[in-house]
TrEMBL record:
Claim: Glycosyltransferase is one of the keywords in the record: yes
EC number: 2.4.1.13
Classification of source organism: Eukaryota, Viridiplantae, Streptophyta, Embryophyta, Tracheophyta
Protein's name according to its UniProt entry: Sucrose synthase
Domain of life assignment: Eukaryota
Protein family membership: Belongs to the glycosyltransferase 1 family. Plant sucrose synthase subfamily.
Length: 836
């Protein structure tokens, strides 16, 4: 269950469904009797549709729309209550009496959650004093987006809202003047001083200043006009040259006279507001070398290191263009692990390679008995976070010689710590989920008691809800991460309304139409992942090793299988070996498709070959399955299976060597939240086929910059790949076209420079947004503090503290809850008829 009722399937859904059921009463009686057969339970979308399709003999449009958009239903005989999602983020709840189909009524999300709770804890569901959590109660006065297509475009909406607040009389612009007066760096005023303390005074001074610049050469340095400007009430920060000063003056003048969203965003992108940034990522082994593949350590580390480098470059450029002589500071704050397993994770400070002003700051986890020496799983990290937040606050203030200007959290633990620190210091805060565990595991909310002893999901879901609501803005990589697709709810959407039976009922957790949501897609490090055509930059020293990796006929610990025909192009995939990543699915598609096998070789990079080396049950099963598929389809001579690779530079050159063969990259995941390997491959000039489930569907424009493939329809997907290579065989320019257009797409939308510029602009704008809505923000913060102290802190007491005496596992816990299953088939008859 996921969301609150924020939209309508129709003007009167209950009346429409009642009438539709009446028209198809005999069919629907049979359908509802099937739902009743197994008694009280939760029915999933595919179960609802399967039974409906069996009895549907005519096209009843209203029922078809309801069943195609129903995500689940609660059966409490004689009632079936449907959770219907007509559009992303909009939910309706309809209760139908299976005995009397005219008995149909619409209910609230809270009522639906109570029905759902009867499955897990019927007594608690009837408790009139059960705790209900409602964050929407503090947001009722805040404006919200209204169109599903606008979700994730919060900055645009915020600029329009702020513009409306500043418009009208000159006095309406006073909040902006007050904000400008608050800008300073280590006690030194920036932009304006108290001489210009009203909008009218500022407007007049801007006119005088603009006239004074009209006769000066555009490249005149600011120092030449600084004394004159200071006499008029202006301080440094307007620009480094007369040209830039003039641009900033004009932007501010236009905002004061006739505000519009474009000029407002342009102005805030120029203001000197951010110099010091703190990024939190406590769990795992955070380092620059020898850490990838260690427990809880993977893509998030790579993401943050690339993010830091890009943000530093952008900050340096911004500060220079503002005419300031200030050195930016960026800190990644993580955990110091004394038993560092050969890494540098036991060092308190570490400079980031390729930067001048960015460092890793490590602070240990501390308990009453001392410092925890060993790694602790991200599932067991919660007892340490509050003390960690207290300890890092003083460390940050010392390291930066003052407060940071922007705090960014990562994942559940980093987001919670960032919320605690930002609240204490009064700093603008952003959060990045990376992955929300609640959406990975089916029914992990109503089954929380069953799962909590091992995974502590109650702590995680409450922590996520707290940090989402505390954040000033939320950074997502894709639209689907926020609000999913037409068929599937988004990761954040799943926190809109949910229940933890026996603990609390979250009737309003987060609203995906909130303007705090923004999409800023990351890129790939373009010093590592660059086009194969840039021969002068290529890492040729890796070529002998890559030659051996791809083409030697010897089986060893790094590779097995061989490629008999070196003239064939290579289709290539690289990922973890688990069910969702679906590498075994790709191998089976290839094995079954004789046409594809005749055209290309297959190279798989992932895991290792001996299942006994894995401590993850799912990975062990996939390794065994891969061996079985190679034997079943007699793939030797056409497949090369390479063990997981952690050297980024060599991986970048591996992509390019695959491009040299005129091959392609295939990402076949059942679901992929973002798809960093897709970005890497396209950066290197590899034509790319990627899953249509999740982020890659947004990265690739199908048939233009690459191809979407359906991971649940292997025949269709493998034939799509084969069609491409047949066309390339007759027309080599076809391959070049997709290589070039994929690269063009990346450079237009998916680079770290674009990302860094977006995030820093968000930090500036939402800093003012927070000040503009400070009363509402303070009220909500009080509610969050109460929820944190009365709920979260008590839950944390149930999480056992790790012991340095206990042997720590070498990988994340082996017994996982089952991932949410993928769509049962590519498209049902119902979906074809009604377009869901």
């Amino acid at each position: 269950m996921t969301s609150t009722s924020t939209g309508k399937l129709s003007d009167s859904i209950a009346d429409n469904i009642r009438n539709a059921l009446k028209q198809s009463q005999s069919y629907m009686k049979r359908c509802f009797s099937k739902y009743m057969e197994k008694g009280k339970r939760v029915l999933k979308a595919h179960e609802l549709r399967d039974e409906f399709e069996k009895v549907m003999d005519d096209k009843n449009e209203t029922l078809g729309t309801m069943f195609s958009s129903a995500q689940e239903a609660v059966v409490t005989p004689p009632y079936v209550t449907f959770a219907v999602r007509p559009t992303p983020g909009c939910w309706e709840f309809v209760k139908v009496n299976s005995v009397d189909l005219s008995d149909v009524k619409q209910i609230s999300s809270a009522e639906y959650l109570k029905l759902k709770e009867t499955i897990a804890d019927e007594n608690w569901s009837k408790d009139e004093n059960a705790l209900e959590v409602d964050f929407e109660a503090f947001d009722f006065s805040m404006p919200k987006l209204t169109l599903a297509s606008s979700i994730g475009k919060g900055l645009n909406f915020a600029s329009k809202y702020i513009t409306s607040k500043l418009s009208g009389s000159v006095d309406n612009a006073q909040p902006l003047v007050d904000y400008l007066l608050s800008l300073e760096y280590q006690g030194e005023k920036l932009m304006i001083n108290e001489t210009l303390n009203t909008a009218a005074k500022l407007q007049l001074a801007l006119i005088v200043a603009e006239v004074s610049l009209s006769d000066l050469p555009r490249d005149t340095p600011y120092q030449s006009i600084e004394l004159r400007f200071k006499e008029w009430g202006f301080e440094r920060g307007w620009g480094d040259t007369v040209e830039r000063v003039h641009e900033t003056i004009r932007s501010l003048s236009e905002v004061l006279q006739a505000p519009d969203p474009q000029n407002l965003e342009k102005l805030f992108s120029k203001l000197p507001t951010i110099f010091k940034v703190v990024i939190f990522s406590p769990h795992g082994y955070f380092g620059q070398s020898d850490v990838l593949g260690l427990p809880d350590t993977g893509g998030q580390v790579v993401y943050i290191l690339d993010q830091m480098r890009a943000m530093e470059e952008e900050l340096v450029l911004k500060i220079k263009s503002q005419g300031l002589n200030i050195k930016p500071q960026i800190l990644v704050v993580t955990r110091l692990i004394p038993d560092a397993r050969g890494t540098k994770c036991n060092q308190e400070r570490e400079s980031i390679i390729g930067t001048k002003y960015s460092q890793i700051l490590r602070v240990p986890f501390r308990t009453e008995t001392g410092i925890l020496r060993r790694w602790v799983s991200r599932f067991d990290i919660y007892p340490y976070l509050e003390t960690f937040a207290q300890d890092v606050t003083s460390k940050i203030l010392d390291a930066m010689e003052g407060k940071p200007d922007l705090i960014i959290g990562n994942y559940t633990d980093g987001n919670l710590v960032s919320s605690l620190v930002a609240s204490k210091l009064g700093i603008t805060q952003a959060t990045i989920a990376h992955a929300l565990e609640k959406t990975k595991y089916e029914d992990s909310d109503i089954k929380w008691k069953e799962l909590d002893p091992k995974y502590h999901f109650s702590c995680q879901f409450i922590a996520d809800t707290i940090s989402m609501n505390a954040a000033d803005f939320i950074i997502a990589s894709t639209y689907q991460e926020i609000a999913g697709s037409k068929e599937r709810p988004g990761q954040y959407e799943s926190h809109a309304a949910f229940t933890l039976p026996g603990l609390c009922r979250v009737v309003s957790g987060i609203n995906v139409y909130d303007p705090k949501f923004n999409i800023a897609a990351p890129g790939a490090d373009q010093s590592v992942y660059f086009p194969y055509t840039e021969t002068g930059k290529r890492f040729t020293s890796f070529h002998p090793a890559i030659e051996e990796l791809l083409y030697s006929k010897v089986d060893n610990d790094e590779h097995i299988g061989y490629l008999a025909d070196r003239k064939k192009p290579i289709i290539f995939s690289m990922a973890r070996l688990d069910t969702v990543k679906n590498l075994t699915g790709l191998t089976e598609w290839y094995g079954k498709n004789k046409r594809l096998r005749s055209l290309v070789n297959l190279v798989i990079v992932g895991a290792f070959f001996n299942p006994s080396k894995s401590k993850d049950r799912e990975e062990m099963a996939e390794i065994k399955k891969m061996h079985a598929l190679i034997e079943k389809y007699q793939l030797k001579g056409q497949i090369r299976w390479i063990a997981a690779q952690t050297d980024r530079n060599r991986n970048g050159e591996l992509y390019r060597c695959i491009a040299d063969t005129k091959g392609a990259f295939v990402q076949p995941a059942l679901y992929e939240a973002f798809g960093l390997t897709v970005i890497e491959a396209m950066n290197c000039g590899l034509p790319t086929f990627a899953t249509n489930q999740g982020g890659p569907a947004e990265i690739i424009v199908d048939g233009v910059s690459g191809f979407h493939i359906n991971p649940t329809n292997g025949d269709e997907s493998s034939n799509k790949i084969a069609d491409f290579f047949e066309k390339c065989k007759t027309n080599p320019a076809y391959w070049n076209q997709f290589s070039a257009d994929g690269l063009k797409r990346i450079n237009e939308c998916y680079t770290w420079k674009i990302y860094a510029n977006k995030v820093l602009n968000m930090g500036c704008m939402y800093g003012f947004w927070k000040q503009l809505n400070k009363d509402q923000k303070q009220a909500k913060q009080r509610y969050i503090q109460a929820f944190y102290n009365l709920m979260f802190r008590n839950l944390v007491k149930n999480v056992p503290l790790a012991s340095d005496e206990t042997q720590q596992p070498d990988s994340k816990p082996a017994d996982k809850p089952q991932p949410t299953p993928s769509t049962k088939r590519s498209q049902s008859r119902l979906q074809r008829l009604f377009g869901a």
